Amino acid sequence: MPEVLTLPPPASLIMPGPAFERPPTTPAQQVYFYSPNEWEHFIVEWAEGITDSYYQIKQLGGSGDRGVDVAAFKTERGLEGSWDCFQAKHYIRPLRWSDTYPEMVKMLLSVVDNAYCLPDKYVFVAPQGCGQTLNRLLSKPKALQNKFIDELNKQSAVTRDLDAQALESIKNIAKSIDFSIFRSLELNEMLETHRRTRYYATRFGTALPNRPRANQAPVTPKPEEARYVEKLLDIYSEQDPVSCSDIASVVAHTKYGAHLQRQREAFYSAEALRLYARDAVPDGTYELLQDDVYTGVIDTAEANHSSGLERLQAVLSQSAKLDLSVHKLISVSTLKDRQGICHQLANVDKLTWVDTDE
């Protein structure tokens, strides 16, 4: 998966109103109301879903961007290696030649100035797309090249501040490159690609993709289970110190063996939800859910209880009562996941059932 610029957490990580209501507008309609900056955020998200394997995707738009709003790097060399450029234009109308020509000049001037290498693709990205005339021109690279060079030979506001040497250098590059690098994107194509990313459901308020079935807990606990299983063994040892001295004896126990297995199944269910979230929702979504579960059960965990088993039972019961409907992931989660999150928290020492220091 490509490294992606860290964006501010979307408001949709937590739903502000009634959970999972579909917005009254379509994704395409929502996009039309974006600010230019939010449009660039959307392009960064969209680029993660492109089949091409990008090493890194960065939003670079702003003052002094040298004609690069979103850069998708194919190597660790960034702008000095192989890369694609996505030029964001959030206009209320389709793009025209007068919108794209200055950007093409700016990009080639930046190449002349060694600000970056010539990109493999220079793509104009606008919610309304390109007008018919510009679309036809972008579909005919040789004609586009000829028109661009003809424009350079004219006196215009775009080139009048360039000195003769810079203008001649731009002309030389324009004559030598393949103008098929200049392209445009249609919004319907972008939305279809964006649908395959982890951002789509939360950005547009649609249902999350189907969640795969969780794997069964293995017979022998794995090393990554060690801490929460150890805390469960403290419970069983407290209840029956003679028969519950280690994991093998607990597994064989007529009462606590089944109890341990249920806890481990819950842990693996929550782990499956965590892995699902990694590909289905933006970074931080699952952690926000974990944080709210912790906030909802910590007072119960810290209250006085007669035993570790009673404390565990009280915490698991409290987790089932929590109102977590504002969290997007709740639509694909179960009560078992909530219990498993409690064990995940125990696994990182945020929850403890038996105080062994007493």
How does this model look, in words?
The chain is of the alpha/beta class and 358 residues long. Helix content is 47%, strand content 7%. The protein contains 14 helices and 6 strands. The protein has helices at 27-32, 36-48, 97-112, 132-138, 141-152, 164-176, 187-194, 200-204, 226-239, 247-251, 256-280, 285-302, 308-321, 335-347; strands at residues 3-4, 56-59, 70-73, 83-88, 121-125, 182-185. The protein has a 6-stranded mixed beta sheet. Strand 4, helix 3 and strand 5 form a beta-alpha-beta unit. Helix 12 crosses helix 14. The two termini are 47 Å apart. The model is unreliable at 1-20 (pLDDT under 50).
Index terms:
single chain, 358 residues, alpha/beta, six-stranded mixed β-sheet, 14 helices, disordered N terminus
